[in-house]
Amino acid sequence: MLNSIERFLHHLRVERNSSPETVRAYASDLARFATYLRGTRDGLDPLPPPDEVQTPEVRGYLAHLHRQGHQKSSTARRLASLRSFFRYCCREGRCRRNPAKSIMAPRKEKRLPRVLSVDEVLRLVTAPEDATPLQRRDRAILEFLYASGVRVSELVGLDREDLDLKSRVARVRGKGQKERMVPFGEPAAHAVDSYLQAWTQLRRSSRRRRPALGEVSVPLFLNFRGERLGVRSVRRILDRYLRHAAIELHVSPHALRHSFATHLLDRGADLRAIQELLGHASLSTTQRYTHVTTERMIDTFQRSHPRA
After folding, report:
1. pLDDT, tens digit, for every residue of 30-73?
2. I need a surface site. Which of 97, 158, 258, 284 has the fewest CB within 10 A?
3. Same domain, yes or no, for 64 and 122?
4. How far apart are CA 126 and CA 139, in angstroms?
């Protein structure tokens, strides 16, 4: 089975052109399932080939996740990973049937995305000072996240050549490496321009003075070592300025993306246009922001109307 998993991950990287984050998620989910199978067989190796895995074993794995207290969303994602893996095995002739196909995913709780108010966003994006190159970078990151609505993985994947400050447009590579053009506003352009004036100072601190063999990209957002910033680093940056701006914690960087979409919708933007800006493949994904707006309207009514 391990050989089949490696082939599947190679298929995702090379043929499906999946992002590194997607490949890592599949690898983690399938490794967990392999560990579970090994435990049910008294730790004996080798693991069974995909064709010998039965539907009751997949059901037992989901029950095992439930007993461990995993959220329904996590369980549903791991079931989806197994379905994709066995579907690939069937296509490649390694399986006669998909043992995960007939299993119903647990119904996920529908939760509205956390959205910052306009005032909270303004306090957050203006929290960093402009005294050091890293503070300029932090201001540029927060401004750009809210101004463009990009995912954090898309933000850290930006290269210098992807930005056109004069036209205020960025070329963004989303899920499946699909490219889209995203506009951003003047405040974000000023913040990025200010950061770029200090960009060389950060780049000089890189331990790799020369690019690696085959490297052609020049990252836009750098860490203190002068190398491409990571997704977790953006999370730490956001947490720092949430505390500085005295905003409720437990807000992820994705909240700026949610706020971007909700504030556009509040001001009359077309849902199809928001879908294009966010890079959603399906309009149904974008439509959840209409529920956020409805909830806010009801809340405003109940707080403000004398007969509410």
Report:
1. 999 998 988 887 655 678 888 888 999 999 999 999 898 888 88
2. 284
3. no
4. 7
